[in-house]
Amino acid sequence: MLRIHFTPQDLARLHVASTPDPLWEIACSLHRLQTTQGRWAYADWHRGTRATLAGTPLGAAVRRLLFPLLPRARYMPDFLNPAESADGLECGLAAVVDVPPTRVARELDLLRRSSGAPDWAARLVERPVREELAKVLRAYHDAVVAPHQDRIHAELTGERALRAHEVLDTGVDGLLSGLSPSMRWHPPVLHIDYVEDRDLYLTGRGLRLVPSYFCWQSPVSMADPELPPVLTYPLHHKQPPAPARPADASLAALLGRTRAAALRGVASGATTSELARHLGVSPATATHHTTVLRDSGLTTSHRVGNIVLHTLTPLGAALLRRPVPAAPVQP
Question: What is the pLDDT of residues 153-207, one digit of tens each?
Fold first, then answer.
């Protein structure tokens, strides 16, 4: 059990990550490759990743370097998930390279005592070796995580929209109470089903909540309580990702300004009444638009209390990002 102790200052400094954290997604996706638990929720990704890595130098590097350093075990080195990763992959990898060698040695010793570490890992105290590790992490991300960014971004956007409405409707208590079935909020302590029994006192530093696409069931935190507090928790996977729908009459119905505006209106999450106000139409008309968008595979709907929240699917997000062809210039 992990118990996170909040002060009033910590509740004021609680926030949810606005973008996926690439190094946490790398770590959690490596865990998905090392276990069969929850594989049904990532079946397409798992098959594609196995095919991508099979028989390649990258696949060999993943097995030799990344699996031992980021095992699905009680402990993994904190320096591989730096706070700088919140600003993007390159910032995170730069922090991995710049970490003090004394800290690397200390955390690798914890890894060795926890689940074992290969002999070569001791060389990570050398900066050139960490630079080579960063290259492998970047190549893995580009090959395995980046191709699924549409889905990851869409699910995280939907998660943030849900949490925002919870805060507005029920306050921080509602937010902390609804994060995951593995977490229970008994103010001022958040109780989390965890791999070990310990307490984390935030002492006014706040907490960064990181929704993760590849995290499964059990939230993850930093082992060192002196590091900036972070809690990576799983997005809810209720069913395997549905295959992309073919273009049909439902998609053709999207050809119109009002429905295109409706699609843009749910980009950050919107309830039916909010969308109706945005479009300047009645709630019944807004419901009609959201039904067509949902049936076309462009949006999804979640019930939160007595309201329905609409967010984009990966297909809808990709459609909004698709550049609009320029109109031909008339002579």
Answer: 888 888 888 888 788 888 898 889 888 888 999 999 999 999 889 999 999 999 9
User: How far apart, in whole angstroms, are the C-alpha atoms of residue 210 and residue 217?
Assistant: 14
As beta bridge partners, residue 311 has: 300
| Backbone φ and ψ of 256, nearest 5° | 175, 150
* Helix, strand, coil percentages, rounded to 5, for the chain: 55, 15, 35
pTM across the whole model: 0.77
Partnered with residue 211 across adjacent β-strands are 233
Question: How many other C-beta atoms lie within 10 A of the C-beta of residue 154?
Answer: 22
Yes or no: say if 198 and 189 are a contact pair by the CB < 8 Å rule. no
Residue 217 falls in which region: left (phi positive, over 0), alpha (psi -120 to 50) or beta = left
Give residue-wise pLDDT tens across range 207-218.
Answer: 999 999 999 888
Q: Residue 309: left if φ>0, alpha if ψ -120 to 50, beta else—which one?
A: beta
Task: Measure the CA–CA gap between 298 and 83, rounded to whole angstroms.
Answer: 33
DSSP for 63-106, written as a single string: IIIIHHHS-SSS---GGGS-GGGGG-HHHHHHHHHHS-HHHHHH
- CA dist., res. 86 & res. 20, Å (int): 8
CA 245 to chain centre: 24
Residues 239, 256: Cα–Cα separation, whole Å: 32
> Using an 8 Å Cβ cutoff, are 262 and 290 in contact?
yes
Domain architecture of the chain: domains with CATH? 1-239 (no CATH), 249-321 (1.10.10.10)
Residue 43 pLDDT class (50, 70, 90 cuts): confident
More confident residue, 61 or 285: 61
> Given the structure tokens 């439902």, which residue do they identify?
250
203 sits in the region (left: phi over 0; alpha: psi -120 to 50; else beta) called left
Q: Nearest to residue 34, comparing CAs of 60, 69, 72? A: 72
